[in-house]
Amino acid sequence: MKTLYNLFINGEWIRTVKEMKVLDKYSGSIVGTVSVADENDVERAIVTACDSFPEMSELSAYRRAEILTQIAGGIKERAEEIAEVIAREAGKAWKYAIGEVNRCVETFTFAAGEARTLHGETVPMDASTAGEGRFGFWIREPVGVVVAISPFNFPLNLVAHKVAPAIAAGCPVVLKPASWTPITALLLAEIIEETDLPKGAFNVVIGGGSTVGKQLVTDPRPAKVTFTGSPPVGLWIKKNCGMKKVTLELGSNSGVIIDIDADLDLAVERCLMGAFANSGQVCISVQRIYLHEKIAKEFTDKFLNGVKKLKIGNPLEKDTDVGPMIDPAEVERVELWIEDAVSTGAEVLAGGNRINNRVFSPTVLNNVSSDMKVVKDEVFGPVVSFFTFVDISSAISELDRSQYGLQAGIFTKQIDHAMKAIKRINVGGIMINDVPTFRVDHMPYGGNKLSGIGREGLRFAIEEMTQIKMVCIKL
What we know:
This protein is an alpha/beta fold. The chain has 15 helices and 23 strands.
């Protein structure tokens, strides 16, 4: 594995004067050194992307599909190498890191399929008296340069969910990956470099959100910003991006209901994964579990027994379940949130403490209230809170009483309870007999309320990276 990584602009690798170290999130050792962009580098990336737009927009559907298929093949060939980098720079347990790589292969493959079927529709002009003697249809055209700002928690597949639909739509990209995890994105650039994508149509610039990110968002030339991250940053982007199209995925405090007749073994297994995969650093991580009072003790006992069996440690060990958090400051923050909850009455059933300054123990809280930060805000750590309920309607209302609305789940065998949840919970997606953490990469994915604007998932992201042109022909 090499140790020096540079910016990728106009098909060239650019080394800059300013560099930064990327750390192994478990050991603290250096994974690599990465060039950091200045204002001139960002300007060059934007100009390059704009210059490539005519060629990109003219690529035929089959060529765009072939390029996406080439990228998928390149990722598959380097799967273990990329997974190791994800495990080190993101601290993600190996089984989830390799799972992310495999999902990314699917993401680019799905995008290739969508590229081949992107189309418009005819319009029955003569449905209006004014439209007689006219033939109408609309087509989809690429919107222009896409600015993609991706997070640390899925440094490959959430990059893919921005880059793949852009290529499928015919849009050039300027990518700014998270500064904690930039190397994975640069490995993707190496793969894309070997494909037939036009030179300059994919660029990677590294740097902080307040510098590189701000310049990309406020520059008037890009046509679209797609961002995954925190609500404050998303709201800032929305306010400062001008007339650009925007997709914002801003997280959640996802809840799941365990009904009286639920399959408890399945629910426990899925909730353990949903709460603690990637140390809870997942936008759709299980943060709140609502238990029917008649099964609450049995579920709790089974769940706590499952927590005891989780292997905590080095993410490169292939049987590890829970690795480090992204940064020691995040470990400290989670600890403070738990201390605050305990000081106002919460009970710690498991965990509740840092193992070291990089790893936080999987934590289960009881006797919590809806005004505690660990409940109402996004913990983004390995913490889950238990509630009990008697009536399904009240459980649904409590789960929905949130500023977020990304995804939710319910385990039940009663179709009327499932339908109530579907109708009454204001979220972008609801999983029946599964946790809100479930996602496949071609489904529409995104949130309501403070969870964001727009949808990812290849078909839906592609639509948001295109614009409709109406054509009317007078016969």
